[in-house]
Please model this.
Amino acid sequence: MLTPGRPTQQSSAGVAGRDSSGRGDGSSPDPGAPDRSAAERDPDFDFSLPLPAAYYDSVHDDYYDDYDEYDYGPTWRERIRGWLGRGLVRLGWVGLAAVLAFGSAGMVAATSHSPALGQRPELTWGADQTLAVKLDGAVRDLVLLSDDVTELGVQTRSVLSNLTQVNQVGVTAAQGDGNTALAAIDKRTADLRQRLDCGPWTDAKITQMIETYSSDAITRYRNVCLALDSVGPLDDDWASLVGGSSETMKVAQDIADHDNSGKDALQLATAGRYPEALAKLAGADKPLSEATAIASQLSLVADLSTLTTWLARTKGFDDSLRVLWQSLIDSKGRVTSAVTAALKGVNDAKALLPTDNSALQVSLFELASRLTADGISIETARGQLSTAVNALTGGTVTGS
Model:
């Protein structure tokens, strides 16, 4: 029987390990031996002659006894191994593609960080440096501004101290020095606001700044602006303090003017010059009325009970003197029942008045105490600015 791929004729002597009859000697052919063509084995053999069938049977029975069943294709095990191998190769390519994809995504993410996150300082370095120079100059001016506010605080305490001492000269001097300090504060603040362009810190502004500056630069910028905002209430506080202290001194001056006129009137009355005494006493009515009006207005926002009571009793005493002196004029200096009743009224009114200036001191203290809130507000602003400047400079930078 013919086998595909095998020679049609072979010499019996051309098969290694076989005898002349074509039977093998039981040994297997050498797999490493080179395959020789029929011409090399027997050059004189005639390949055109057919061989007997018995020869093919003997060759099939003997020569192929050492081989397994002829393989026409891979076995099922080999096919499974092939499938697994191809699957693993495809899986490897998919994994490699995934790694490359994640790597590319990471590169894109690395180059698309928002500057405000602080992860890409090189993207904001230039803008941060420019802003830093601007803020450094602003911080130096804030140091000078803090000095001005400190001076304003000193003058605030001086005003309050001189008020309690009824020192008009001291109050006026402190007000003048405070006005000078406040003018410097306003000028420096206006200049800083123009240079920094702080404005309201809205979400839109912060979002816009994030595109240009790092988070640290934005934080420092905002802290500088907040420090500048701390001086905002100073104008109103100082104006209130100056106005209040001026009113207080006005009341004190009115009382002093009244007392001086009253003393002169008493001297005239003692000399029996009652018409002149009444005229002089009338001159004391004006400052007393002005002091009473101021106290009545201020009493709506502060406790001035001592002052208002003292002013009311002073007016009562003046009125009793006016009745007495007029009675003496009417009686032509004689003691009548009307004069006696008027004299009793004077004594009763006088008994209600203090014997010294303690009531005046208390009254002025009441007036000054309502200004304490203004002084506290000014001191609060000074403290806030000082703290902010120390935080921005570490307490080592001075103005220049």
Notes: Residues 1-29, 31-40, 59-70, 108-118 have pLDDT under 50 and may be disordered.
